[in-house]
Design the sequence.
């Protein structure tokens, strides 16, 4: 009895792992590669991807408003031909209201099962400006004005007033060349007068 339970558990685990791996391989063959989430689209949009799982019967493409409470889907394309990494259909967005939409790829298998791949956040912008980030303008460091810091706030900066040196008043003790020349001449004249006076005095004295 215990051996039967062990074999049954092993068979169950193997079967479950096989089914999971099979489902995963099928899901990998059902996807939309373009457009991608948050992409901005305009006009006629080509939708690419794959719809080629084992047991394939048909696929359908549809879209809906992302925030719509009605969840109404509108078909874009349906086909019974497999697509492997190619074009799934064309989505005409020029007649749609600019908004955010969801794309859905739904593949129906021969056994009635369905595989679904969804792309959210697709932004249709045919009539409104496309949001773009504005780059910050580069600022030349030489054009920046100094920003006062906390330490500088509340302080008065005194700028010294540097004026050109004024002319100095004439020094009364300064000896001028003309004064020197005048002194020399007066000395010579005075000396000559003294010599003359002494000579006359001596001549008069000798006469006596």
Sequence:
């Amino acid at each position: 009895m215990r051996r039967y339970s062990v074999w049954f558990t092993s068979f169950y685990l193997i079967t479950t792992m096989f089914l999971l791996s099979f489902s995963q391989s099928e899901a990998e063959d059902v996807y939309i590669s373009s457009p991608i989430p948050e992409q901005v689209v305009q006009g006629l949009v080509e939708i690419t991807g794959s719809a080629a799982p084992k047991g394939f019967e048909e696929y359908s493409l549809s879209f809906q408003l992302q925030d719509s409470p009605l969840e109404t889907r509108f078909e874009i394309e349906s086909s019974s031909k497999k697509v492997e990494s190619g074009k799934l259909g064309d989505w005409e967005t020029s007649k749609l209201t600019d908004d955010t939409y969801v794309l859905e790829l739904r593949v129906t298998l021969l056994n009635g099962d369905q595989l679904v791949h969804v792309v959210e956040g697709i932004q249709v912008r045919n009539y409104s400006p496309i949001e773009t980030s504005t780059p910050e303008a580069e600022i030349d460091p030489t054009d920046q004005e100094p920003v006062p810091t906390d330490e500088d706030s509340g302080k008065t900066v005194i700028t010294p007033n540097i004026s050109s040196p004024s002319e100095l008043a004439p020094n009364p003790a300064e000896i001028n060349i003309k004064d020197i020349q005048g002194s020399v001449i007066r000395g010579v004249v005075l000396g000559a007068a003294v010599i003359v006076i002494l000579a006359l005095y001596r001549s008069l004295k000798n006469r006596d």
Summary: The first helix runs from residue 2 to 28. Strands lie at 30-34, 40-41, 44-51, 56-65, 74-79, 83-92, 100-109, 114-124. The two ends are 186 Å apart (CA to CA).
